[in-house]
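USER: If only I could read C-alpha coordinates as easily as an amino acid sequence. It would mean a lot if you studied the pair and described how this chain folds. Here is the record:
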Amino acid sequence: MPTSPRFGVLLLPNAPWPTLVARVCRAEELSFDVLWLGDHFVNPYAPEQDWFDAWTLLGALAASTTRIRLGPLVSGLTLRNPALLARMAMTVDHRVRRSPGARDRRRGRPLDVTMTGAATWTPRERVDRLEEAVRIVTGLFAGGPVDADGAYRIAGAVLHPLPVQRPRPPLTVSANGPRAMAVAARHADAWDTYAVAGGRDVRGALHGVSALDLIRSRCALMDEICDREGRDPSTLRRSLVSFQGISEPLLAPRAFADYIDAVRAAGIDDVTIYWPQRPEEEPALEAIAAEALPFLRQ
Protein backbone atom coordinates (compact mmCIF):
# COMPACT_ATOMS: atom_id res chain seq x y z
CA MET A 1 0.00 0.00 0.00
CA PRO A 2 1.47 3.41 -0.93
CA THR A 3 2.75 5.55 1.92
CA SER A 4 1.00 8.79 2.75
CA PRO A 5 3.21 11.70 1.61
CA ARG A 6 4.66 14.18 4.07
CA PHE A 7 5.45 17.75 3.11
CA GLY A 8 8.15 19.94 4.57
CA VAL A 9 9.29 23.50 4.15
CA LEU A 10 12.97 24.45 4.47
CA LEU A 11 13.62 27.79 6.13
CA LEU A 12 16.97 29.54 5.88
CA PRO A 13 17.88 31.21 9.21
CA ASN A 14 18.69 34.49 7.50
CA ALA A 15 15.76 36.70 8.50
CA PRO A 16 15.13 38.81 11.64
CA TRP A 17 13.83 36.94 14.66
CA PRO A 18 10.20 38.19 14.44
CA THR A 19 10.09 37.14 10.78
CA LEU A 20 11.39 33.66 11.55
CA VAL A 21 8.80 33.20 14.32
CA ALA A 22 6.03 34.37 12.00
CA ARG A 23 7.14 31.98 9.24
CA VAL A 24 7.31 28.97 11.55
CA CYS A 25 3.84 29.72 12.92
CA ARG A 26 2.50 30.20 9.41
CA ALA A 27 4.03 26.90 8.23
CA GLU A 28 2.17 25.16 11.06
CA GLU A 29 -1.09 26.95 10.19
CA LEU A 30 -0.65 25.84 6.58
CA SER A 31 -0.47 22.20 7.76
CA PHE A 32 3.06 21.42 6.64
CA ASP A 33 4.31 18.30 8.40
CA VAL A 34 7.82 19.53 9.18
CA LEU A 35 9.77 22.79 9.30
CA TRP A 36 13.45 22.34 8.53
CA LEU A 37 16.24 24.84 9.21
CA GLY A 38 19.41 25.10 7.14
CA ASP A 39 22.46 24.38 9.31
CA HIS A 40 25.81 25.92 8.37
CA PHE A 41 28.25 28.27 10.08
CA VAL A 42 27.34 30.90 7.47
CA ASN A 43 25.26 30.88 4.32
CA PRO A 44 27.69 29.01 2.05
CA TYR A 45 26.55 31.01 -0.98
CA ALA A 46 26.35 34.43 0.70
CA PRO A 47 28.66 34.53 3.76
CA GLU A 48 28.06 38.25 4.27
CA GLN A 49 24.36 37.58 4.90
CA ASP A 50 22.80 37.50 8.39
CA TRP A 51 22.69 33.89 9.58
CA PHE A 52 21.56 32.38 12.91
CA ASP A 53 22.60 29.05 14.44
CA ALA A 54 20.07 26.36 13.52
CA TRP A 55 20.09 24.32 16.73
CA THR A 56 19.77 27.36 18.98
CA LEU A 57 16.83 28.47 16.85
CA LEU A 58 15.12 25.08 17.02
CA GLY A 59 14.68 25.21 20.77
CA ALA A 60 13.60 28.84 20.70
CA LEU A 61 11.14 28.53 17.81
CA ALA A 62 9.56 25.44 19.32
CA ALA A 63 7.95 27.57 22.00
CA SER A 64 5.75 29.12 19.31
CA THR A 65 4.43 25.85 17.84
CA THR A 66 2.32 22.91 18.99
CA ARG A 67 2.14 20.37 16.14
CA ILE A 68 4.71 20.81 13.38
CA ARG A 69 7.92 18.83 13.58
CA LEU A 70 11.16 20.80 13.67
CA GLY A 71 14.63 19.77 12.58
CA PRO A 72 17.88 20.69 10.82
CA LEU A 73 18.32 19.75 7.16
CA VAL A 74 20.99 18.85 7.42
CA SER A 75 23.13 18.92 10.57
CA GLY A 76 26.69 18.45 9.36
CA LEU A 77 29.25 16.48 11.33
CA THR A 78 31.88 19.00 10.28
CA LEU A 79 30.65 21.36 12.98
CA ARG A 80 29.66 19.10 15.89
CA ASN A 81 30.81 16.05 17.79
CA PRO A 82 28.11 13.34 17.44
CA ALA A 83 27.79 12.80 21.21
CA LEU A 84 27.15 16.51 21.69
CA LEU A 85 24.76 16.43 18.75
CA ALA A 86 22.79 13.61 20.40
CA ARG A 87 22.45 15.64 23.61
CA MET A 88 21.28 18.71 21.67
CA ALA A 89 18.67 16.61 19.89
CA MET A 90 17.48 15.06 23.16
CA THR A 91 17.13 18.52 24.72
CA VAL A 92 15.06 19.85 21.83
CA ASP A 93 12.97 16.67 21.87
CA HIS A 94 12.04 17.32 25.51
CA ARG A 95 11.36 20.98 24.90
CA VAL A 96 8.89 20.42 22.10
CA ARG A 97 7.62 16.91 22.91
CA ARG A 98 8.31 15.69 19.42
CA SER A 99 11.17 14.81 17.15
CA PRO A 100 13.71 17.37 16.02
CA GLY A 101 13.17 15.58 12.74
CA ALA A 102 16.60 14.42 11.68
CA ARG A 103 19.95 13.20 12.73
CA ASP A 104 21.64 13.68 9.46
CA ARG A 105 24.72 14.77 7.64
CA ARG A 106 26.00 16.46 4.54
CA ARG A 107 29.59 16.83 3.51
CA GLY A 108 31.13 19.91 5.07
CA ARG A 109 31.15 22.98 2.86
CA PRO A 110 34.43 24.88 2.51
CA LEU A 111 33.28 27.92 4.54
CA ASP A 112 32.16 25.69 7.42
CA VAL A 113 35.72 24.41 7.49
CA THR A 114 37.73 27.56 6.85
CA MET A 115 35.73 29.81 9.19
CA THR A 116 35.73 27.38 12.13
CA GLY A 117 39.10 25.68 11.82
CA ALA A 118 37.41 22.28 11.39
CA ALA A 119 39.46 19.48 9.90
CA THR A 120 39.27 18.80 6.17
CA TRP A 121 38.14 15.25 5.42
CA THR A 122 38.43 13.26 2.24
CA PRO A 123 35.21 11.83 0.78
CA ARG A 124 36.08 8.40 2.19
CA GLU A 125 36.79 9.87 5.63
CA ARG A 126 33.45 11.69 5.57
CA VAL A 127 31.50 8.50 5.00
CA ASP A 128 33.55 6.64 7.60
CA ARG A 129 32.81 9.39 10.12
CA LEU A 130 29.15 9.34 9.14
CA GLU A 131 28.88 5.64 9.94
CA GLU A 132 30.65 6.06 13.26
CA ALA A 133 28.64 9.14 14.20
CA VAL A 134 25.32 7.44 13.46
CA ARG A 135 26.33 4.51 15.68
CA ILE A 136 27.22 6.93 18.50
CA VAL A 137 23.97 8.89 18.22
CA THR A 138 21.73 5.83 18.02
CA GLY A 139 23.64 4.17 20.85
CA LEU A 140 23.09 7.19 23.08
CA PHE A 141 19.41 7.36 22.13
CA ALA A 142 19.14 3.69 23.17
CA GLY A 143 20.55 4.44 26.60
CA GLY A 144 24.28 3.87 26.24
CA PRO A 145 26.90 3.85 27.56
CA VAL A 146 28.74 4.38 24.29
CA ASP A 147 32.43 3.91 23.56
CA ALA A 148 34.19 4.76 20.31
CA ASP A 149 37.87 4.51 19.43
CA GLY A 150 37.90 5.54 15.78
CA ALA A 151 37.67 9.05 14.39
CA TYR A 152 35.80 9.99 17.58
CA ARG A 153 37.39 9.05 20.94
CA ILE A 154 34.43 8.58 23.27
CA ALA A 155 34.41 6.66 26.53
CA GLY A 156 31.36 5.76 28.61
CA ALA A 157 29.10 8.44 27.13
CA VAL A 158 25.54 8.41 28.49
CA LEU A 159 22.40 10.41 27.85
CA HIS A 160 20.01 11.27 30.69
CA PRO A 161 17.14 11.78 30.30
CA LEU A 162 16.48 9.80 27.17
CA PRO A 163 14.53 11.42 24.33
CA VAL A 164 10.76 11.60 24.76
CA GLN A 165 10.10 9.71 21.55
CA ARG A 166 10.69 6.00 21.77
CA PRO A 167 12.51 4.07 20.60
CA ARG A 168 14.25 7.26 19.38
CA PRO A 169 13.68 10.47 17.43
CA PRO A 170 13.47 9.68 13.70
CA LEU A 171 16.86 9.43 12.02
CA THR A 172 17.27 10.83 8.51
CA VAL A 173 20.51 10.47 6.57
CA SER A 174 21.13 12.73 3.58
CA ALA A 175 23.23 10.96 0.96
CA ASN A 176 23.76 10.91 -2.79
CA GLY A 177 26.67 8.46 -3.09
CA PRO A 178 26.48 4.65 -2.76
CA ARG A 179 28.61 4.32 0.42
CA ALA A 180 26.68 6.98 2.32
CA MET A 181 23.39 5.61 0.99
CA ALA A 182 24.41 2.26 2.47
CA VAL A 183 24.77 3.94 5.87
CA ALA A 184 21.18 5.16 5.50
CA ALA A 185 20.03 1.67 4.58
CA ARG A 186 21.72 0.18 7.64
CA HIS A 187 20.69 2.71 10.27
CA ALA A 188 18.16 5.36 9.19
CA ASP A 189 14.41 5.74 9.32
CA ALA A 190 14.51 7.95 6.23
CA TRP A 191 16.92 8.75 3.42
CA ASP A 192 17.09 12.24 1.91
CA THR A 193 18.37 13.20 -1.53
CA TYR A 194 18.19 16.02 -4.06
CA ALA A 195 18.74 16.40 -7.79
CA VAL A 196 22.06 18.00 -8.74
CA ALA A 197 24.15 17.36 -11.83
CA GLY A 198 27.20 16.44 -9.76
CA GLY A 199 28.55 16.88 -6.27
CA ARG A 200 26.22 18.72 -3.92
CA ASP A 201 26.15 22.37 -5.09
CA VAL A 202 22.58 23.65 -5.57
CA ARG A 203 23.84 25.72 -8.49
CA GLY A 204 24.07 22.43 -10.36
CA ALA A 205 20.39 21.69 -9.79
CA LEU A 206 18.56 19.63 -12.38
CA HIS A 207 14.95 20.23 -13.33
CA GLY A 208 12.17 18.55 -15.26
CA VAL A 209 12.83 15.21 -16.95
CA SER A 210 16.55 15.23 -16.08
CA ALA A 211 15.78 15.58 -12.37
CA LEU A 212 13.15 12.83 -12.48
CA ASP A 213 15.53 10.47 -14.28
CA LEU A 214 18.19 11.05 -11.63
CA ILE A 215 15.71 10.59 -8.77
CA ARG A 216 14.39 7.38 -10.33
CA SER A 217 17.88 5.95 -10.74
CA ARG A 218 18.87 6.86 -7.17
CA CYS A 219 15.75 5.24 -5.75
CA ALA A 220 16.47 2.10 -7.78
CA LEU A 221 20.03 2.10 -6.43
CA MET A 222 18.70 2.44 -2.89
CA ASP A 223 16.45 -0.58 -3.46
CA GLU A 224 19.53 -2.58 -4.50
CA ILE A 225 21.51 -1.36 -1.49
CA CYS A 226 18.70 -2.27 0.91
CA ASP A 227 18.53 -5.75 -0.62
CA ARG A 228 22.29 -6.18 -0.12
CA GLU A 229 22.01 -4.97 3.48
CA GLY A 230 19.15 -7.37 4.21
CA ARG A 231 16.57 -4.62 4.67
CA ASP A 232 13.10 -4.44 3.20
CA PRO A 233 13.31 -1.34 0.95
CA SER A 234 9.74 -0.38 1.82
CA THR A 235 10.75 0.25 5.46
CA LEU A 236 13.03 3.17 4.51
CA ARG A 237 11.19 6.40 3.71
CA ARG A 238 12.65 8.42 0.83
CA SER A 239 12.58 12.21 0.93
CA LEU A 240 13.48 14.78 -1.70
CA VAL A 241 14.57 18.38 -1.22
CA SER A 242 13.12 20.27 -4.18
CA PHE A 243 14.71 23.52 -5.24
CA GLN A 244 11.32 25.15 -5.70
CA GLY A 245 11.25 28.38 -3.74
CA ILE A 246 15.00 29.02 -3.98
CA SER A 247 16.45 28.42 -7.46
CA GLU A 248 13.14 27.92 -9.25
CA PRO A 249 9.71 29.42 -8.59
CA LEU A 250 6.96 27.61 -6.73
CA LEU A 251 4.39 26.06 -9.03
CA ALA A 252 0.68 26.72 -9.19
CA PRO A 253 -1.30 24.21 -7.09
CA ARG A 254 -2.38 21.94 -9.97
CA ALA A 255 1.13 21.89 -11.45
CA PHE A 256 2.59 21.25 -8.01
CA ALA A 257 0.27 18.27 -7.53
CA ASP A 258 1.36 16.90 -10.91
CA TYR A 259 5.00 17.35 -9.86
CA ILE A 260 4.42 15.45 -6.62
CA ASP A 261 2.70 12.64 -8.52
CA ALA A 262 5.75 12.42 -10.79
CA VAL A 263 8.36 12.31 -8.02
CA ARG A 264 6.32 9.77 -6.05
CA ALA A 265 6.10 7.61 -9.14
CA ALA A 266 9.90 7.87 -9.29
CA GLY A 267 10.11 6.39 -5.77
CA ILE A 268 9.92 9.36 -3.38
CA ASP A 269 7.66 9.43 -0.31
CA ASP A 270 8.19 12.94 1.12
CA VAL A 271 8.98 16.31 -0.45
CA THR A 272 10.46 19.48 1.04
CA ILE A 273 10.33 22.86 -0.67
CA TYR A 274 12.08 26.08 0.33
CA TRP A 275 10.32 28.95 1.99
CA PRO A 276 10.15 31.56 -0.82
CA GLN A 277 13.12 33.91 -0.81
CA ARG A 278 11.00 36.93 -1.78
CA PRO A 279 7.85 38.00 0.11
CA GLU A 280 5.93 38.49 -3.12
CA GLU A 281 6.25 34.72 -3.77
CA GLU A 282 4.68 33.69 -0.46
CA PRO A 283 1.10 33.66 -1.87
CA ALA A 284 2.23 30.75 -4.08
CA LEU A 285 3.19 28.80 -0.94
CA GLU A 286 -0.19 29.61 0.61
CA ALA A 287 -2.00 28.42 -2.51
CA ILE A 288 -0.09 25.14 -2.60
CA ALA A 289 -0.90 24.50 1.07
CA ALA A 290 -4.58 25.36 0.67
CA GLU A 291 -5.32 23.67 -2.65
CA ALA A 292 -2.68 21.03 -3.40
CA LEU A 293 -1.71 19.47 -0.06
CA PRO A 294 -5.21 18.32 1.01
CA PHE A 295 -5.72 16.72 -2.39
CA LEU A 296 -2.31 15.00 -2.31
CA ARG A 297 -2.84 13.67 1.20
CA GLN A 298 -5.95 11.81 0.10
